[in-house]
Amino acid sequence: MPKMKTNRAAAKRFKVTANGGLKSGNAYTQHRFHGKTKKQRRNLRGTRMMDETTLKTYHQLLQK
């Protein structure tokens, strides 16, 4: 049986942390900032940890 291939699109977007969590960039950060408050824009900077409900699905995409 051949090895599982890593989903390259997912590998470019998500990073696995030491404890097995996933971190990724935020959505809603590409355009139309004039409709968002300063607080929203500030909170959308950086990365966020992925929600527990979707971790299993994304870990399968990232299997090497």
UniProtKB/TrEMBL annotation:
<protein>
    <recommendedName>
        <fullName>Large ribosomal subunit protein bL35</fullName>
    </recommendedName>
</protein>
<dbReference type="InterPro" id="IPR001706">
    <property type="entry name" value="Ribosomal_bL35"/>
</dbReference>
<comment type="similarity">
    <text>Belongs to the bacterial ribosomal protein bL35 family.</text>
</comment>
<feature type="region of interest" description="Disordered">
    <location>
        <begin position="20"/>
        <end position="44"/>
    </location>
</feature>
<dbReference type="GO" id="GO:0003735">
    <property type="term" value="F:structural constituent of ribosome"/>
</dbReference>
<feature type="compositionally biased region" description="Basic residues">
    <location>
        <begin position="31"/>
        <end position="44"/>
    </location>
</feature>
<dbReference type="InterPro" id="IPR037229">
    <property type="entry name" value="Ribosomal_bL35_sf"/>
</dbReference>
<keyword id="KW-0687">Ribonucleoprotein</keyword>
<dbReference type="GO" id="GO:0022625">
    <property type="term" value="C:cytosolic large ribosomal subunit"/>
</dbReference>
<dbReference type="InterPro" id="IPR018265">
    <property type="entry name" value="Ribosomal_bL35_CS"/>
</dbReference>
<dbReference type="Pfam" id="PF01632">
    <property type="entry name" value="Ribosomal_L35p"/>
</dbReference>
<dbReference type="InterPro" id="IPR021137">
    <property type="entry name" value="Ribosomal_bL35-like"/>
</dbReference>
<dbReference type="GO" id="GO:0006412">
    <property type="term" value="P:translation"/>
</dbReference>
<keyword id="KW-0689">Ribosomal protein</keyword>
